[in-house]
Amino acid sequence: MAAWGPKLAVALMLLGSAGPAGAQVADLVSRSAFRVCADPAAWPASSEDGTGYENRIAELLAGELGRPVEYTWYPMSTGFIRRTLAAAECDVVIGYAQGDELVLNTNHWLTSSWVLVARADGPLAEVDALSDPRLREARIGIVAGTPPVDHLAYNRLLTNIESYDLFADRRYNSPPDRMLADLGAGTIDAALMWGPIAGPLVKERSLPFVVTPLLKEERMPHLFYRITMGVRQGEDAWKREMNSLIRRNQDRIDAILREAGVPLLNDMGTGLKAAG
């Protein structure tokens, strides 16, 4: 996917210069609908049945624009941006990590972190750092290729892990669901998961687990991330419009996230975000 950066830029330049004089890349953005690119099976974030928190945020912003929401569904894996946003099938990805060159990032609307999920009645319930000696005898579930792997290596915890797929079509294979099921069954003693996935899953299912944001890891890579919305490269006017929407509705967005169970952090990732 990385090779798509320069190709996408060239394609958009050509699109911007084609047609009547004065035509702009922003003309690709629909003004009759709020067209969202989304994964149909990435609950709790997005879901084809509309129950994800990103679906609710999309409905909120569409209401502010006075437009209906229209979705282009595609699994969030290799080819997602190419087949959706870059193909002008839709105009915005609600949740996208800050700094990815495949999209033009808006201002962030969420800061969250990786978390440690453990049984509430177990010996790891109060663990809040990967250097905690109580983890040395624990079997830890981890998503392959994610930032916490480096921290496990530094703390010499890679000898007793259970690895789960990073990319999967969750309609058929859902690593987060399998991790939580394995934690409940005792196959693993703790799970390292992305907070905006783990928190809502645990809350919605009333699972007997604690979800602890990992805020004490000082080594790189950092374990907190800012989440933006992604628009097409070159669509600066649309980006500014989205930034304005986010700014005016941040408190309402936060309320949706808190209700869902997403751990909200301050902008620097050093502590929980204060309620507005």
Description:
This is Substrate-binding domain-containing protein. The structure is a single chain. By secondary structure, the chain is of the alpha/beta class. It has two domains: 4-15 and 31-110 and 224-260, D-Maltodextrin-Binding Protein, domain 2, CATH 3.40.190; 112-213, Periplasmic binding protein-like II (D-Maltodextrin-Binding Protein, domain 2, 3-Layer(aba) Sandwich), CATH 3.40.190.10. It is 30% helix and 21% strand. The chain is built from seven helices and twelve strands. The strands form two sheets. Strands 1, 4, 5, 6, 7, 8, 9, 10, 11 and 12 form a ten-stranded mixed β-sheet that branches. Strands 2-3 form a two-stranded antiparallel ribbon.
Question: Which key features would you list for this structure?
Answer:
276 residues, alpha/beta, D-Maltodextrin-Binding Protein, domain 2, ten-stranded mixed beta sheet, 30% helix, 21% strand, elongated, disordered N terminus
Write the layout of secondary structure elements.
Blueprint: H1 4-17, E1 34-38, E2 41-42, E3 46-47, H2 53-65, E4 69-73, H3 80-83, E5 92-97, E6 104-105, E7 110-119, E8 140-143, H4 148-154, E9 161-164, H5 175-185, E10 190-194, H6 195-204, E11 209-213, E12 224-231, H7 236-260
Parallel strand pairs: 1-4, 1-5, 8-9, 8-10
Antiparallel strand pairs: 2-3, 5-12, 6-12, 7-10, 7-11, 7-12
